[in-house]
């Protein structure tokens, strides 16, 4: 990145750091004659925040939590209007996130408590096939201590409880490691509003002092979700024992305790929901407070209730026998119905907000957030249903002797084949459109090179690259189709499960033989597809754990998914920007304050998003010393469309006004980067005309061999990059003095993050700063 094998880390640690060339380490302290007007580049490297060690691959299992967290930030822009509607949007997404936690923990309870401890261990034939369950199976004499169903359930409850503890530990540990970096003191956050969820002004909310420091909300949500998970496990054990105690002839003492436990579960659930609804994000100020009593007492209280439920279930009930399924079949139906209603309500709220200030390029006309929330719920359902179905098949074997998982999970499996068929149709339509666009682009490529000898294969490759790059702009339509289909199929599965419970026997009993056969086939295929998909999911994660190249691919996914703070779900993968943005802000603020110099901040791909976020966090006096150079940037093409409240036209226009100058480079063959598209006269000033790709159509004196089609990579290889950087250095305001020598303090204070480039190691690089007597040097 720095074009020199001799580099040194000037500040930072093994997780993220700033590097310089060895010859430039003391640039600020040497005479200007040694550097002249040459820029001094620095590179900020954040690769270990997204694709460092192998444990990142395990974050794939947290994918539903990450996706629902993205839905929070996809809120349509309101520009300070309808603050209550904005808060309602955030509340609905947080409730959807809470439902996902309950769903996945309930799935763990289904596997450990119902399928293993209740059904398999209670069935002699199944227990004989799995000897590790032998000590839980009722013995011939019936005197095995663990053979009673309540004790089996209490022991099995340790599995979902351990899962909950692991999620709490990962959330707490990653917060301390990644997201606990406060921004520099004195940040005035020019883009302020009334509240983090109360709407934004014409400046981006990313400039608020507390935007990248959500410690208080994450701690509250972590306590609430941990408590909800423990309450789910406690209810799974306690309600089974309470149902047995309510039978005639049961022990009077236990019969009296049953309603008390039920009341405790309901009260705990209400407290958890109140905590989730009570407070959103606080962004207008740097909130160092922590609700310590709530954060500590809520999980501990739920854990105590879980322990009491386990003791209650372990009480002796000699006549209790396990038969059928546990009394939790309707839990999954209630969760699915709740999620569907939340998504519909979220869509209504998003539509109201979008109409307040319509953004013509907003994805799905402002409905991207509800669509992504629906996708998160679908992922949670697929993961929970896949695990339950596969474990049931593994435990039961042939012939089938167990009742199996709840009916709804079977119906959810049956809707997977129709959804895949719909996706195949969508893929076919996209392929047809791509071919049509490729023909049009081929004609355009020939018109761009009238003097070149015709080369049909070369023209076809360039046209294909352009046509494939354009598929990115169709992603909202695909997501909308999938979201609507998922919502309708989910409603159909709910109806099918309800009819199955009301009609004894098979779900399609009484129907024509062809329909019954189709229903059985789709259910069987769906069950296997869910299982295979989940196995592929885990296999990909395992491969990424061992293979650095695959781990780097997952790192690209995290670049977008984990850029945003955890505002809706505390168990989502950690937000790397809460470490990277303060790093960059501290670096630029301390350097400009110490030297009085100017700098060009350049970023490639996701690095350009970090560059914009860091520039927003600077004080106005420091921001006016910054020039932006972005290339392959998704700032408008992806972030502006999918996150209009934070990267919409008003926010990007304000950033253009507040920095000294800004230039953006892009290619028509780039599937990620694109123009900034600022409104008015400032748009052409920011966006340079699309760069040539490839640099030469045929063989020339400068390119005797065929030039490659670069697409999203190697922007610095284009001569336009060096030209635009030179022009930015020349355009920086001459009245701003050049860098002055640093008089005191450690040497690393004298460097600034001059580049951010998403490369093979996810580094950042770019220019400049050079101490020069003319006062025109930059850093």
TrEMBL record:
InterPro entries: AB_hydrolase_fold (IPR029058). Residues 179-200, 732-779 are annotated as: Disordered. The keyword Transmembrane helix applies. Keywords: Membrane, Transmembrane, Transmembrane helix. The chain crosses the membrane at residues 57-74, 86-108, 153-170, 223-242, 257-277, 298-318, 330-354, 366-388, 408-431, 478-497, 526-545. The keyword Iron-sulfur does not apply. This is Integral membrane protein. It comes from Streptomyces griseoaurantiacus.
